[in-house]
Fold these 4 entries.
Entry 1:
Amino acid sequence: MFHPLVVFIGLRYTRHRRNRFVSFISAISMVGIALGITALITVLSVMNGFQRELRERILSLTAHARVTAEAGTLADWQALRDRVLSEPGVVAAAPYIQSEAMLLRGEEVGGALLQGILPEAEAAVADIAGQVVTGSLAALRAGDFGIVLGRDLAYQFGVEVGDRITVVSPRANVTPAGLMPRLKRFTVVGVFATGMLNYDRAMAFAHLDDVARLFRLSGPEGLRLRLADIFQAPQQVQALRAGLGNNLRVQSWADEHATFFRAVQIEKTTMFVILTLIVAVAAFNIVSTLVMVVTEKQGDIAILRTLGTSPAGILGIFVVQGAGIGLVGTLLGLLGGLLLAANVEWVVASLEHLLGMRVMSPEIYLISELPSEIIPGDVLGIAVVAFLLTVAATLYPAYRAARVQPAGALRYE
């Protein structure tokens, strides 16, 4: 079927010199396939980068896994930490308290998610210190009632390092005069920025002992864990649950953000299917090209048949022609897609500068830049699917060519 002579004739038919319209349709098919593959590689690379950036930024402030008590606080968290650290795959553990609180300064009122941490232990679990842009996380010392705010939260209250802000606990005091809110003045000792509005506008950190005193807790609510491999977190959590017993709750980062990352994965799959349809439309333009070539080459097909070429050989000629068009379009699309995906941040920045507008506004999106990550497996899958679609588009015209009868085709020659 793919004898060297068959391949030679098929490639020769690809460059149709007598009928410029057929050559034009072939070129349009190549360009359509190339543009579809370029779009597909670029979109999937951006979505991969988006997923990577979100995962890294989320995990810079949250732990790979958490161990919490079913109710109340951990009775002996130091012993529990030593026990957890003895488990294989657990690199570090740090105690924490997390609760909603209200912040007051002047007439400005707002809510925040206040986390009590031990700065020296937290550094081994999450990279909070690396996100601090002014001040220092190490300035959080027990009894000083210092606080580190997100950048947008600090901007909302108009505070800087050294300013004071009031933190109101949702746990009120019961007095003879009725319920009285518990509040304490904290000093801003740092401001952090992650680039994610949900964190920068809603999170604050203070020393574990100070938060425990404010909320009247006897100890931490749980432990934040760092694992050797974040992608093995679900399996590691299963092992921890079996080893720690039923009175403790163990969750991984995948459990906490499962809905979000599942939605991102579904969106990526949906975009792959939609953009593959664009490639399919361009690929099936090859059908019209080959049908016109088969109609025009009736005489040539008949002569080849009389010279001894089998129907399978005729089929192979037109499969080679269509596959050649698809191969060139696929290679051009791979080149364009890789170039665009590798430079998409520069392209977007140039468009923003030219148009005077923000494509990724931090007010709308979780991140303010358009990242990109090229995964070789995705690129290879796109290339294979696109090429198979072009080959599939050649089968019907090639089958029609193989059924041409020499006597009938030469009757009017």
Entry 2:
Amino acid sequence: MSVIQRNNIKVLGSGEKAMVFGHGFGCDQNMWRFIWPAFAEEYRIVLFDHVGCGGSDLKAYDAGKYSSLEGYAEDIIEICRALSVTHGVFVGHSVSAMIGAMASVKAPDIFDNLVMIGPSPRYIDDAEYIGGFTEAQIHELLDFLDSNHMGWSQAMAPVIMGNPDRPELGEELTNSFCMTDPEIAKRFARVTFLSDNRADLPRVTARSLVLQCSEDVIAPQAVGEYVHRHLPGSAYVLLQASGHCPNLSAPEETIAAMKTFLETGAG
């Protein structure tokens, strides 16, 4: 099986330098449809689905390999090697922000720039670290998902999306969650919400932009500020957008912040 088939890779755009987009939990590459066209003239756009999501090959899912975020980071490196991506840009949403950072540490030549949208290196509070959830809350969330995937999706997606005045956004995320294979979703959720990748942040050498949404229940402002403080030389932008998915709810603001960072090196 080729990497192209495994990760349902699509290559678009007309630029020489690559811009690789990584989606969040329960989503797929379609979540980038409002963002990537703004960069298609300048970059070679690479869209993919994590194994177990979207149009990826579900037969390629290996519970052992994907028992940690490192398995997903290895896939990103394989994607880049297969497409001869070097010195590119990685745009990661939510858990993919950290997956991309991990890939850049393992293979520093693949990305010169990281755009991290709603990143969180750890979701559970720890001593003075504020992750946004207690350990009990995370286990309650995971137990709910284990017992009722559809009910969890219908309850959690609108909360994660935010923007209650635009219910169609919450409905889209609900549908995306519901279409994900339930067993894989349960495993990916555990890997995501029990992860602790704080030690990886100081090892990142790529220029990084942290895009933090206001009123984000999954990755609150304190988390984005923590990521910014521990990523060497990173830029930080607090978006006016609320919720956890500005790639859907506020694409224009997201694009503008990305372009400012990539064109001028400023946040």
Entry 3:
Amino acid sequence: MKEMPKLSIVALCDTGLKVSRLGFGTFDLGSPSLNISPEEGGRILAESYKLGVNFWDTSDDYGSHPHVASALKRVPRKDVIISTKKGAKTGKEARKSLRSSLRELSTDYIDIFLMHCVDSDWIGECHRVLRELNDVRTTGIVKAVGLSTHSVTVVKEASQFEELYRLWTRNLYMSP
């Protein structure tokens, strides 16, 4: 059997993170209808790592944190970029979620922590939460912060915040 070529690795903006061009979204690993055990999910993620996928996207509401934690027993933590997210509405809630994610993922740090599914109803509050999370970023517990949205309106609105623009151009990752 012919060996698969490794995926190319690229810099993620100027976060200092280097990610594979292809990431692994873990939504399906946590799906109750698929009944994938954390052990099996960990094997799947470890296999993706062997193929060059070092970027794993998860969320506390996907139910896949245990699968990622299982995979981290099989691969060097320093070689994998983990993105997780939470729909927290306050800085306190986001910090609590971050601590919970660290525990569930069995890791000392999160590479990318995103405010999840931001919509136009709370973009203003999200701005404040991201500023608070940027302070947490300086501790090293999280390397980059940002937001995920399904709304072009939110992207346009968020781009008008001067503080966010400065953060985005320096160390903020935005997920579509």
Entry 4:
Amino acid sequence: MAGDYTVSKGAPLEEVVIAVYSRATELAFQPNLYFAQFAQTKRWDLNRAPVPGDTVVFTIYNNLAPKTTPLSDEYSDIDRVPVTVAQKSIELKEYGNLVTVTNRLRVTAFDNIDLAVARVVGANMANSVDLIARQAYDAQEGSNYVTYVGGGTQPSDITSDDIITAEYLRKAYVKLERANVPKFDGGFYIAVLHPDVIYDLKSEGYGTPNNVGTWRAPREYCDPEELYNGEIGSFEGFRIISSSNARIQESAGGDGCDVYTSYFLGYQAVAYAEGQKPGLRLTGPMDNLGRTLNIGWYGLFGFGELRPDALHKVFSASSVA
């Protein structure tokens, strides 16, 4: 029959093998929501529909100064002191992404194209939101809030030998604690570190008499249902979060090494304002015959610094890089 696939007698086996495609879908490896999960959240008043450019205001009540002197006598009135506040405004901005698929592609594709594209778009949404959140962590680079391994003052002072050690975690812990930064549940601060940096920390001192620090598995200090995304254990008073989204400045070091940012934070370091929660959207058809379908994500939200004392960053190299 015309069009039939035929193989001549004696043909090699490879000629009778044809490609078979699974209708299951596989995604490229993606990070998850790591930075965004620690933001202090405030959602817009549902009685008012937010519009782009609106802001959400966070009000912080300052502590009163300690009063350590006794009252003068039983007949004298005490001086009144005001309660002061600080306000931080987070601007709501629109974010989103979009993929268009055609009816022809959906009908003829071997894969379940609708499911595949929805998963790709969903992964893009999570990764994008997390990197938007990280921008708020990266914004503050004042000298009081950053440390450069090796004692420098800028990324170009970092060299390949300037890898992070447990000492820098202990110093970051002290900086947060002496500023009276509240801890998260369980009495820990949080550290978000790149996997390359975690490798250096785990390698430090192993097999030597002066082994430094003790890593604890998550099951030793919290219920598995209470784990944060990316949590791998605790070390030096921090619950350690492993994230490939931690910032890397490629070749920014003095000898061309990559410079890693490690984040150490307490409660209310970063704020998240939500006008409309990021989510998937299906729109279309956009042509007269209804042949196209748009699959995308959209959100109206913003991240910003809330309490600068609650976040400290350490810049370092890594032996892995």
